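ERR on first pass: missing label on line 2. Operator R.T. fixed the label and resubmitted. Corrected input:
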Amino acid sequence: MAAVTHDSATARRHPTIHDVASHAGVSKSTVSNVVRGLPGVSEATRHRVRAAIDELGYRPNVLARQLVQQRTSILGVVVGDLANPFFAEMAKSVERHAAARGYTAMFCNTEGDSQSELAGVETLLQHRVAGIVFLAFSGDARTMREVMQHQVPAVFVSCGADWGDVVSVDDEFGGRLGTSHLIEAGHRRIAYLSIPELEDESDRVRWVGYCAALKEAHIGPPLRISWSPPSDHARIDGLERPLLDVFTGADRATGVFASNDVAAIALQEFADRVNLHVPDDISIVGFDDVPMAGLARIALTTVAQPRDELAGLGIATIADRIERRLKGPPTRKLVDVNLVARRSTAAPRPS
Amino acid sequence: MAAVTHDSATARRHPTIHDVASHAGVSKSTVSNVVRGLPGVSEATRHRVRAAIDELGYRPNVLARQLVQQRTSILGVVVGDLANPFFAEMAKSVERHAAARGYTAMFCNTEGDSQSELAGVETLLQHRVAGIVFLAFSGDARTMREVMQHQVPAVFVSCGADWGDVVSVDDEFGGRLGTSHLIEAGHRRIAYLSIPELEDESDRVRWVGYCAALKEAHIGPPLRISWSPPSDHARIDGLERPLLDVFTGADRATGVFASNDVAAIALQEFADRVNLHVPDDISIVGFDDVPMAGLARIALTTVAQPRDELAGLGIATIADRIERRLKGPPTRKLVDVNLVARRSTAAPRPS
DNA sequence: ATGAAAGCGCTAACAG
DNA sequence: CTGTTAGCGCTTTCAT
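pass 2 clean. output:
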């Protein structure tokens, strides 16, 4: 009978703790204690158990462990768009910091769509993730209800919400910084550019910073462009019109502050295509400082976010929440942005 | 007593199937049947159960389900470098295709390091993933042993190994294609460029294609550059030397075939920095066709991989393995590459 | 059509 | 120091 059990164990895809126990001639608890490295096991048995583990190729079943412990070591990570280099870098950073603290990351991509955001969060919740890291958040109330109801810690990294810890840059300041750079260069007609898929809370706050900078310099009114590249039309101050209109005519914009680098680079591409020169015809400032922005051929002036710092603080925060070192109301930590001036900005061409 | 149970249920973070059952006045089995949408439940009770579920905000515990079913719906995805746009795009695609088939993706980033690859795979295995999708594979034998021992299906997408299903492009043909393009443009001294972190099986096969193309055209010998951008030194035919040496002197290379776009773009950046003109001084061909390559300012000639097709086929393959529709020895499916000619290549400058 | 009972692999008291 | 016991939340026969 023992032999049969043993045979089936080696044949089975995954040997269990029980297989190891009988193989080593000890009880399950002892094996468990060895696996978890608890004290109070004699060297002799410890060795016998280790040998059995190696021999059978035993790997603890995390599912079973987490079921009984009522907590997992999985962190759900909600990403706006993995193909966007900013998110890709953040995702990588987050994964590394999570792994360093013993957590595994489970990503879900939302495409900025609150429907798939909700679906993704539901999946994460069903997997009983220990916490959720939002790298982007639509602001959807159903998502919020869902997460709050299950009392799963949430941290918003480089995005915002008032119902969880926030680790982000001061987006308003960033918006001012980028806009001021254009104003100081002599621009008087400056547009704000964003991509519909990425218009979240951060985007709104950057817009506020942009408006404030204009106001302080007594320049106005603000001009908002919402554009899905590579279309040649965009929503300009709420009206669907050719994007080129913004940069032609008497009241043309000479400077653009984009709420993210992907939008900024897409605009630069558009400018190249329609023979508008950057920076002489249009100066462009981005936000994020994705690696691509530093390429000589792109040379995008941008408001840089310290990605790895954000990721590290974000993971530290949610780990503290999960492990109950951090209690009480949501915290809010802001880290500094700084402007990286490159060749996409200059004084406007004298008219 | 019943009331107490009920109260604690609503107070508990996650109501269980038992809570729902007692709330609806039925047995756990019935709730389970309703949740899984099985037939053989009267409309009346079905409704009562649904109501209880809504009221309590019940979400089935995937862990418990998977523990008893002895299989998960998690797919492990091994990624070389999430920050590399090719992998980022692939990861996104893979996630979408997986979700469409009811699987959740769990990523782990390896940085091309076989140590962290092994660690990542161990983690995935402990989570009892249903299968592993390799978007990059170092070739490490320990990783192989680990996966095979646990009899977890593996599929290699856009990378290779002989112990699992492969869905990839014909890398050798791709290597020939890119190299031939340079030969046809009139180049006679053509180097092969790769990045150490990305030198996997695919890279080796592309190198073979490169060599074959040179040989067929009676051009030789091959010249191999292994470079970690943005260093100004590289391993050239095995010797650590200034990268610039390759492009100066009598025997200078006028064309470079890079085994991936990131390397190609980095080289272009290097050329810009040292005032070598692309394509007149150096023609560059990449591999992958990442979105960035299509930017007017980059305009990289490259061998395009059909990313979404690769991801779709990869997920289809592993799903078939997991769900036992596909049995027997590893399969191997190749999809077509094609050359996208842009402005990074031209005839060599007459000397 | 519904319920009772067994058990997935593990941990966490508690005994010995 | 080691073993026994009782679940974690769910699915899955098998009765009723």
